[in-house]
Amino acid sequence: MSLALSPEEQATAAGKDGAGMAMRIVAESARLLGAPRLIPICSAHIDGALYHGDSGTLFAERLVEGGARIAVRSTLNVGALDLTGCSRIRLEEPQRGMARRMMDAYRKLGCEQSWTCAPYQAGHRPAQGSDVAWGESNAVVFCNSVLGARTNRYGDFLDIACAITGRAPDYGLHRAENRRARLVFDVSGLSPSFLASEIAWPVLGSLYGREVGDTIGVVAGIANHPGDDALKAFGAAAASSGAVGLFHIAGVTPEAPNVETILAEPEPEAVIHVTPQMAAKARAGLSTAAVPKTIDAVAIGSPHLSFAEFEMLERLIAGRRLAVPIYACTGRHVLAFLEQDGRRKRLEGSGVVIVADTCVVVTPIMPELSGGVLMTNSGKFAHYAPGNTGYAVLYASLADCVESAVAGKPRFTDLAA
Amino acid sequence: MSAAAEILVRGKAGKGEALVLTAPISFWGGVDPKTGRIADVRHPQHGEVISGRVLFLPGTIGSSSASAVLMELVHNGRGPAALILHEPDAILLLGLIVAREMGWETPMAVRLGRGVFDAYRGSTVKVDDDGAVSVAA
User: Fold this and answer.
1) ipTM here
2) Of these residues, B2, B26, B63, B65, which one is catalytic?
C-alpha cells in the first residue's frame, strides 16, 4: 500500500522552510515503514538534542533557520551538558560549544527544558490510547506499556519532525491490532523473595529483551504492582537487550487485565518458563568484569532516578563517607526536591556526584581510566557502559552498590536468584 | 554471486570489502561515530571498522539514536560504502534520509535476506544505484 498524504500535508511537504523539511522526513519514514497515511499526534518526547557529533547540531539549526516550531507538547530527553552545574562534563571545545548550540536550537523550536530520560516521572504522561511520538528507548517502552499511550520508537530527527508537523506514520504500535501479545513470559517459577528484590526487575528485563526480541509478550506470574520505578528498570533493561517497544504484565499494565485478554490468538506462539537458572545467568550476563579487588566508581540512574530512589540511596548511605564516588543521574524535576530539604548537600557531602540533565554513558563525566571498573544497579548502564565509557561493569543491587562504594571494593551480600 | 535487491534509501553506488555481521547491532553504543569502529565488546565483530565497507546487517537493536550515529558517520566521511539490511530499520535509515535533506552524499541502503549474506563474506562487493548487489571482480 502506498502512502497517501492529505492536500494540506502535501502543501507543507512542498515548502522550502523548516516545516517542509520536517514533513518530508515524516513522509519518507512513512514510506519506508509501509504506512498508508499520517495520523495526528498529541505529544512528543525528543531524544534528538543529545550531541553525537556536529551533524545533529547543523540539522537542528537548519530547522530553526527555517522558522520551524513544535505543534504539540514536546519534552526533551538528556543533553550532553549538565546545564544545572551539578556535575562537571569533560567535553572539550569545540564539541562543548556544538553541544550547547544543539540544546539551544531545540529550545528555540519550542521544546520544554526537561532534559530527562524519565519524562513520565516529570509530569509528561499522555492519556491511555492517545497517539504520541516519543524517542529514547526506555521512555518509549514506558509510554506504551505503563501509560498505554501509543508510540513507535521514534529515533533522532523523526521525533522532532513529528513534533513540528504534529503527524506520525500510521504504523506499528499506533494500531490496536499490533499491540497484542504473542508470547507469554512466565515468571511464576521464581521465588517470591527474588521477585520482591530490587534486582529482579532489571535482571528480568534484560532476560526478557533477549528472549522476545521485538515480539510483544505478556509477563505472567506477578502478584502485585511493583511500582513505577521497578517497571522503569524492567523496560529500560528490556529495550537495551532487545528491540522491545511494548510489554504487558498481566494484572499490572493497563492493556492486560489478564493474560487471555491481551493475547492476539487464543494460544500464545510460545510460553517462556523462566527458571531460577535463567535469571541467574541473565544476572551474570550483566557484568563484564570478573570480580576485581577494587572498583573505581558506582553509577546509578539509568533511567534517571526518581525522588523515591534518592530517598532509598540516602537511607542506604546512612551518613557514611564513600571511598569511591557514586554518580547519581537524574533530571532537574527531581533536583528541585533535593534542594528543598538539604538532601543534595548531605548526599554530596558523602561523596555522591549528582548528575542532572544528562548521564554518565552519554557524555564524558567519569575520568578516563584504562581497566576502570564501574558498579551499577541499572541494566541499561550495564549494557552500554563498556562501549561508551571503556569501564568494565559489575552488576549489583543498590544496597551492594552503596556498600561497595563505601568500601572501595566489591561487596556482594545479595546473591540469591 | 549477484542479486537484485530492493532499494530502501537511494544513494551513491558503492564498492567495498564485505563486513557481514553475525549478530544484530545497536549503532548507538555499538559503533563509534567518529571512527566507525564496532565498540560493543559483546558483539562478535567487536573491533572491526564499518567505514568504507559494504555492511551486511542481520538485524538492529537498542537505542533510538542509531540514526544520529549513522548520519554522523556519513557527515564525517566515515560511513559504510553501502548498507544491506535483512529488514528495513526505519530508525537507522532515517540517518540517511536526513543526511540527504541536508545535502550530503549518502550510501545506498538495500534489502536482502540474511540467508544469502554468507555468500558475500570475504569478497569485495558492489552495490549499484539500481540496487544490484554483486561480487566485484
Assistant:
1) 0.89
2) B63
